[in-house]
Amino acid sequence: MADQIxxxxxxxxxxxxxxDSVIKLLLVDDNENNLLSMEVALERENxxxxxxxxGREALRILLKEEDFSLILLDVKMPTMDGYETAxxxxxxxxxxxxxxxxxxxxxxxxxxxFKGYQAGAVDFIRKPFNAEILRSKVAxxxxxxxxxxxLRKQExxxxxxxxxxxxxxxxxxxxxxxxxxxxENLNHELKALNLSKDKFLSLISHDLRNxxxxxxxxxxxxxxxxxxxxxxxxxxxxxxxxxxxxxxxIQLNEVIDWSKKxxxxxxxxxxxxxxxxxxxDALELLRALAGHKGIKLENKTSQDxxxxxxxxxxxxxxxxxxxxxxxxxxxxxxxxIDAKLEQDRVCIFVEDTGVGMAMDxxxxxxxxxxxxxxxxxxxETGSGLGLFLVNDFVTQHGGKIDVExxxxxxxxxxxxxxxxx
Length: 421
Hints:
Blueprint: H1 2-14, E1 24-28, H2 32-42, E2 48-52, H3 55-64, E3 70-74, H4 82-89, E4 100-104, H5 110-119, E5 121-126, H6 131-224, H7 231-263, E6 270-274, H8 275-284, H9 287-292, E7 296-299, E8 306-310, H10 311-327, E9 334-342, E10 345-352, H11 359-364, E11 374-375, E12 381-382, H12 385-396, E13 401-406, E14 410-418
Parallel strand pairs: 1-2, 1-3, 3-4, 4-5, 7-9
Antiparallel strand pairs: 6-8, 9-10, 10-14, 11-12, 13-14
């Protein structure tokens, strides 16, 4: 009884975890003396031993521990022999890698050996065993186990390196993608800034250049022919100069403020506007220009129409279209602005009695790519950028713009914006 307790204590002690580099052997025999003999024969090799007195006990041990390098298994045991024990061991996938050497006293015949190999044996040792032969055979499998362990560690190391490389590749791909997105965003910002610059230059060009022309014409007439002008004419010209100069200053400040908002991405600021008043305000700077050419400039818009629009954009649309109409209308012609309600929108017309334009020219009007210049039949030339800007502003309002024209008769631009009752 005391021997069994000591044996069980040794088994429990041997069940503690063992490093991979240590060779761990499971010795199975129903005779404790045989177990002791095997341990004595092998102990100088510094193996770790776990012993079992039956096949069932060996199976219970293998349920808890799977890190054995070799199993030395007796064939003849009561209740469950070595062949049956080996078969049950190899039913578990996690145990199939453990080699088994059968220890036998009688079954060394060919049929018995074949049965043993079928059960999973890698070798046989006959009782009574030769200690040198036992050590030699165990040493072969111990070395094989060490090499397999080393190979497994190398595979794990390679797998870790591969995982690290995959992670590094993933991080690099993410950094490249993030950088690509940053560059794309930067490219979009640069395009937006470039468009904002074009808009600003176009506003300066079209909203201020033509009124300045009228201003220069009035001041030039006053400067060159003052002695031939009556006091009343001088007063009229000075009033035009004074009124136009103040209006230009106000409009320039508004354009600069608008440009700042553009850079801050505040591009569209609709408000409730009386359409007739806003059109009249836009036309004020252009009346002197029309007067110098003897062109009748008339605003027929109803006082009752209110729209939801960006005030500066609406003024720029009207001034661009009316400026072009004056430019391409001969001396003594007319330019008329009118509006018509269409369900939830208002359609605004800018009609002139100018030179008109050919069909191929009308198709290019609102396309920035093909606008190197826009020319009329009277040899007037413009950049075309103003009409591109007009189209952009109308689109931002959710409207559309089109044109009808006949050469020698005139041109009518129509654009729509939302109405507010």
